[in-house]
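Table 4 source record.
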Amino acid sequence: MSTDLTRFNSLFDDTFLSDFFRPLATRSNGDKVAAIDVHETDSAYLVNVDMPGVKKSDISIALDNGVLTVKGETQQEEKEEKNGKLIRQERHVGQYLRQLSVGSDVDASAVKATFTDGVLAITLPKKPATPEEGVKISID
């Protein structure tokens, strides 16, 4: 791995993301950790979050104090078993949760998201870089 880490790559050290490499790991409160991909372009960060079985209406996204929070929830299907009984269930029922520290260069007012085929795609546009102005110092 390159030593030139971006802010997202440096999240490996964040305590709330200590399970970064264990997609669908379970937190102590029972939430599943959603698997993500993060890409950086010159103008934005692109985050893809796997949320299989989650309906668009059951997803919430928030950006607060530089932390992006993605939540989704699946519901237990209430159905009568006509062809036998369920003997094994591996599909997750409950809440997915993922949080990322995105920093101060994200334009919070321009964040966009789409949800297609169980993948939530979030675009976090970067704020335009403002050149630092020099200060002329007078000599007394």
